[in-house]
């Protein structure tokens, strides 16, 4: 039991060290030896967990994206009305992705240039996020806050609408004007799903 926890902590530490090196110097400029030295672990320990640099790079991507889904899961568990929950979900998605981008060296960093690897990893969490959105929509319909709809299709559409806003949000969110526009973006998504009169189906 203690051994497995120790191994888990070591692996997490190696991933954190590698992420920091990749973010500061770029993946191309970092070797497995650099990671081993920066982590104060020998090459043998590093290779116990990762066969090569690509494997640890993928682990870094996976861990960063897990942060996003963890934040969204917290929102999903909040005890608030579904319309507020969906609004919080959208804001949290954009802010969490922005945080991950900024701490990994901007959109020009290797982390984001390697689109294939990022999208490969995102496919798994995208499915989870769509299910979280669908759960919110189902709850909203049950509570007569949202219009009746195909929640499977609607959750996919809302997800891709949010995802499509990531790059412009990340690039311009430092301006006060764009930060204010974030609420307008959320309102636009809500226009099609919130019931104007809750007494009607």
What does this molecule look like?
By secondary structure, the protein is mainly alpha-helical. The chain has two domains: 51 residues, Homeodomain-like (Arc Repressor Mutant, subunit A); 134 residues, Tetracycline Repressor, domain 2. 76% of the residues lie in helices and 0% in strands. The chain is built from ten helices and no strands. Helix 4 runs antiparallel to helix 5. The chain is elongated. The relative contact order is 0.10. The model has no long low-confidence stretch (mean pLDDT 85).
Strands, helices and their partners?
Layout (H helix, E strand, L loop, with lengths): L1 H24 L6 H7 L4 H7 L3 H24 L5 H22 L6 H4 L1 H28 L8 H14 L1 H7 L3 H16 L10
Number of strands: 0
Return the average pLDDT rounded to an integer. 85
What is the CATH topology descriptor of the largest domain?
Tetracycline Repressor, domain 2
Shape: elongated
Largest sheet, if any? Answer: none
* Quaternary: single chain
Helix content: over 70%
What is the correct CATH architecture of the largest domain?
Orthogonal Bundle
Question: What is the H level of CATH, i.e. the homologous superfamily of the largest domain?
Answer: Tetracycline Repressor, domain 2
Q: Unreliable segments (pLDDT under 50, ≥5 consecutive)?
A: none
- What is the number of helical segments per DSSP (H or I, 4+ residues)? 10
Write down the secondary-structure element order.
HHHHHHHHHH
Strand content: under 5%
Q: What separation lies between the terminal Cα atoms?
A: 54 Å
CATH level 1 class label of the largest domain: Mainly Alpha
Q: What does the radius of gyration come to?
A: 20 Å
Whole-number tally of structural domains: 2
């Amino acid at each position: 039991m203690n051994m497995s926890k120790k191994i888990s902590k070591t692996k997490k530490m190696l991933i954190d060290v590698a992420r920091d090196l990749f973010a500061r110097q770029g993946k191309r400029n970092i070797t497995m030896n650099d990671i081993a030295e920066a982590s104060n672990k020998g090459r043998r320990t590093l290779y116990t967990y990762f066969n090569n640099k690509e494997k640890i790079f993928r682990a870094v991507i996976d861990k960063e994206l897990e942060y996003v889904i963890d934040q969204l899961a917290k929102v999903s568990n909040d005890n608030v009305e579904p319309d507020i929950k969906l609004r919080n979900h959208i804001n949290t998605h954009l802010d969490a992705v922005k945080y991950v981008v900024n701490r990994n060296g901007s959109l020009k960093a290797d982390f984001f240039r390697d689109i294939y690897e990022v999208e490969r990893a995102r496919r798994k969490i995208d499915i989870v996020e769509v299910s979280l959105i669908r759960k919110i929509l189902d709850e909203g319909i049950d509570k007569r806050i949202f219009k009746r709809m195909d929640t499977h299709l609607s959750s996919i559409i809302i997800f891709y609408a949010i995802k499509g806003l990531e790059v412009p949000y990340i690039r311009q969110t430092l301006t006060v004007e764009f930060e204010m526009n974030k609420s307008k973006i959320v309102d636009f998504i809500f226009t099609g799903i919130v019931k104007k009169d809750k007494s009607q189906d």
